Amino acid sequence: MSVQYPIRTKKKNLNREKLLMAATILFSRNGYTDSTLDQVAAEAGLHVQTLYRHFKTKDELAIAAAEITIRDCRARFEREFPTLSTFQIWREWINDSVSLLTSLGLGDHKRQQLRSSSSLMNDNFLLIIYSGYEDILTEYLAKDFDLNPEKNPLPRLVACMLWSGNEAAMKRCAGLDTEKDVLGSNKVVLDESLKVIAEVEKAFSGHVKTSRP
What's domain 7-207's superfamily in CATH? Predict the structure, then answer.
């Protein structure tokens, strides 16, 4: 049975969803530091005062927006793990995430952020997402490897390689290592991102103990 909300509550919930979607787009496209709350409100088609009624600070907004991404990622693992390995699910997730990210059109702010050696230092949005990814990957790699992460650090080590490998691929495409900027090419960015996963999987697939139907 669906819950029937009053019209005012429905509007409030809809505005919150618009703000979270707008924040996700701007934080992803331009980076957390270079996205302002005024810009988020404008992207959502709302007044900034409406934003402040939902989120008192930029950090509070970033946490809420990041948690949606983490929630969706966990839901995919819960849904697909019975038939796919952690590496396979992560490959699908990165394929979808990178395709969405590049379709947004990465701005110059994001490009400069990726080229900076301190790219994650002031990006609370990405830090929260990557922390969430690390926990999810650790949990499911531990199941694949049949290891207790409290006693064996390997699942979290490989989890760190997977999420940080994705960031490294984005940096490479922004020209940090190659001095060749290909960040505007969906295919190249995706190929580079999936190549990292393939390398990590090649190195650690022998540890997978769980069979799949």
Answer: Tetracycline Repressor, domain 2 (1.10.357.10)
Q: What is the dihedral of CA 15, 20, 25, 31, to 10 degrees?
A: 130
Whole-number Å distance between alpha carbons of 164 and 190:
15
67-89 pLDDT per residue, tens: 999 999 999 999 999 999 999 99
Would the pLDDT of 207 be above 60?
A: yes
Kindly indicate the confidence band of residue 1, based on its pLDDT and cuts at 50, 70 and 90: very low
Contacts (Cβ under 8 Å, ≥6 apart) of 115: 171, 174, 175, 176
Domain boundaries, the chain: 7-207
Query: Quick check: 103 pLDDT over 90?
Result: no
Please tell me the distance from the alpha carbon of residue 116 to that of residue 176, in angstroms, as a whole number: 8
Please compute, for residue 188, the number of CA atoms within 13 A of its CA located in the half-sphere on the CB side.
12
